[in-house]
Known about the structure:
By secondary structure, the protein is α+β, with helices and mostly antiparallel strands.
Amino acid sequence: MRRFLNTLSGRFLMLTAAFVMLAEVLILVPSVARFREGYLLLRLEKAQIASLALLAADEMITPELEAELLANAGVYNVVLRRDEIRQLVLSSPIPVPVEVTYDLRFAGPLGMIRDTFMDLLDREGVIRVIGEPVESGGQQIEVALERGPMRTAMLEHGARVLVFSALISMVTALLLFLAVRRLLVLPIRRVVTHMTSYAEAPEDARRVITPTAGIRELREAEEALQMMQTQLIGALRQKERLAQLGGAVAKISHDLRNILTTAQLFADRLSSSDDPAVARAAPKLLGSIRRAVSLCEATLTFGRAEEPPPQITRVPLRRLMEEVAEAESLVGGGEVGCLIDVPPNMVIRADGEQLYRVLGNLVRNARQAIETTGQQGTIELSAGEGEEEWWIRVGDTGPGLPPKAREHLFTAFQGGARKGGSGLGLAISSELVRGHGGRLDLLRSDAQGTEFIIRLPKGLGLGDVS
């Protein structure tokens, strides 16, 4: 029983029964007051009929007949006022003095309720009742009657009203309980059942709820749950695919790292070549292979979600940018040019390899965006510093990013702006910049081009590396 009362249905049933009973109790008091008024008016009417019968006979009656008339009317005496004359028409001995007089001619609703409570509290006694005769039978009629029988009749009437109220309360509560159970409880239980079933196998699309509720609020809840479940299934599937892709990328990076390591050994031998051109190209080739090996290792680390912390050193920024531009074939003339607006002696504190990867990703994306237009364009690299941070801007004159790419710009495998791209470059770049305590933001992207800004703090625990 207690378990049922702790449910929504049980509590609603109790509240319904309680409120219906309260309403019936509020109805009970006026109902008993109206019953009392009718009881007294009926006594006045019977008393008037008895007195008029006596007056019509116009002769004396025996005491036995008088007593019978008074008994039929339920009163002790009858006083009529006719033609401004007050006349005791019928009378009998009154056992006790009259306690109170009630004048029904001037009694209002509140007065009737108050008098009802007084009669219910006093068990015995004699009361006087004054009223107006019916059918123009005079100006006023008075009777004296015993309070006990009236009180008993009032209690019996109140008991009947309470029993009837209880029956109405139970029937109403049952109907409301069934209605609420059908309209609210069962749909809510259905939603809970779907949620429990979905939690057991969230990847099973068959367990997604289908909105069927007719009530608007419940249907909106079901639709919201359906949308959440659908999005969660997509996220879980994407997570599974990303995990599989991460495993494949890790294997490829592992094998590619071994291949590049072998290539690095052969490139080391080129540095000792007698050919001047080969000797000049060998360091750049070694640098590219070294960065490729580092990229493979970083990819393996990214797959384990363990990007290494930055190794902070002093980095000549302009020289680093020139290396990036040269690696992306932006020097020596071509459809895509590169403009570096950085002081030659500007030095920042950062991890040179990680910053190279960040700038390389941004410059490569800019170059590919310009090349898709088939027209000439320019990539601009600029930098500056304030009291608390360095800033680096990378802008281009390309076509700008599509709206879909801007929504998930720094999310792995979702922010790719180029067809066939993985969307991993900006995600890795943002993560590397955050590792420096900085921030990578998109300043603008429109038909005139795209511009990113890198902010690197001068403090925040990086320390001053000499």
